[in-house]
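[Q] Does anyone have a clean structure-token version of this?
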Amino acid sequence: MDADLKRIGAVIRQLRAERNLSQDELAYRADLHRTYLGGVERGERNLGVLNLIEIARALGVEPAVLLSGLPVTSETTDA
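[A] Here you go.
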């Protein structure tokens, strides 16, 4: 799994928990399938920009909040 996707998923999970929302409720508010949202939270799904925006809106935050804490440079190296 990609570390950036795991970080984004962890931020979404934390914000969801702070708002006392279930995955089902957040998925409903974002108009996404609950299994897709679960995969996003686990860092298993490479979510698109529009889905990121819908999740942010459903959480009541700016989309940039979901990307906070990501490193500026890639941690991988080209061989």
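[Q] Thanks! Anything notable?
[A] The helical segments are 3-18, 23-30, 34-41, 49-59, 63-66.
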